[in-house]
Design brief:
239 residues, 4 helices, 43% strand, single chain, outer membrane lipoprotein receptor (LolB), chain A, mainly beta, 13-stranded antiparallel beta sheet
């Protein structure tokens, strides 16, 4: 594994400790322009998340005002009612986004897929860097707001459902991730700059609790507005 990738993993708690756990739970408070743009304003403003650590799956509850629950896996998304009955199902969900742009509305299962890949990626980063098939290379440093960050270019294999094949991590002197760039392939390859802060430690693992995502320009700089997505996490638990 790349030396910088190893440094990042160690700074967040280490792979051996991480592998003791199979899932994480958390409370999410979310906002930003994306949700209304996709036709789902308010739907995921306050939700509880359960996400697999390693294995790809995630669930959001409540997924709607009437108590539905989303269930994401890379090849299948289901939405169940409050009694656990499947009310919507989407096989091969990634294929359903063909031809989408940033403005294309999402169905409920498509929203569940996006929310699933997003939160699975965020909770498994940086430990997913050690997964089979993931490749990483250190690239030139980046200076922003008076800080100089090391950068890691990451290539994901096709069997990992995430925002984009190529992503970039920006890392401070302590080895913690400060920014995470990707292009949202299922929304017309929309480029994002994802800022990460306010770390907390849970069972020896460090998690950021504040995430803010802004548009990314061709030169790599981010725009100050609009705020595309905001995520605040609390009550993180590992088991």
């Amino acid at each position: 594994m790349n030396d910088l990738a190893q440094t990042i993993i160690d700074s967040h708690g280490g792979l051996d400790l991480w592998r003791r756990f199979g899932k994480a739970t958390a409370h999410l408070t979310q906002g930003g322009a994306l949700w209304s743009l996709k036709g789902h304003a308010g739907q995921l403003d306050e939700v509880d998340l359960t996400v697999g650590l390693g294995e790809q799956w995630a669930s959001h509850s409540p997924f709607s005002a009437d108590g539905k629950v989303s269930h994401f896996k890379p090849n299948l998304v289901t939405v169940t009612d409050s009694a656990g009955k499947v009310v919507e199902k989407l096989d091969d969900p990634r294929a359903s986004f063909a031809g989408h742009t940033l403005e294309t509305p999402w169905t409920d299962p498509q929203l569940a897929y996006f929310a699933g890949i997003a939160m699975w990626t965020y909770f498994n980063m940086p430990f997913v860097l050690a997964a089979p098939g993931v490749e990483s290379t250190e690239i030139e440093t980046w200076t922003e707001n008076g800080e100089t960050w090391r950068r890691l270019r990451v290539m994901f294999p096709s069997n990992i459902a995430t925002h984009s094949t190529v992503q970039t991590l920006y890392v401070d002197a302590s080895g913690l991730i400060k920014r995470h760039d990707y292009d949202v392939e299922i929304a017309g390859n929309t480029p994002g700059a994802h800022y990460i802060s306010e770390y907390t430690e849970v069972e020896g693992i460090k998690f950021p609790t504040r995430r803010r995502i802004f548009p990314r320009q061709p030169d790599g700089n981010s725009l100050a507005e609009p705020l595309v997505v905001s995520i605040d996490l609390s009550s993180i638990r590992l088991s």
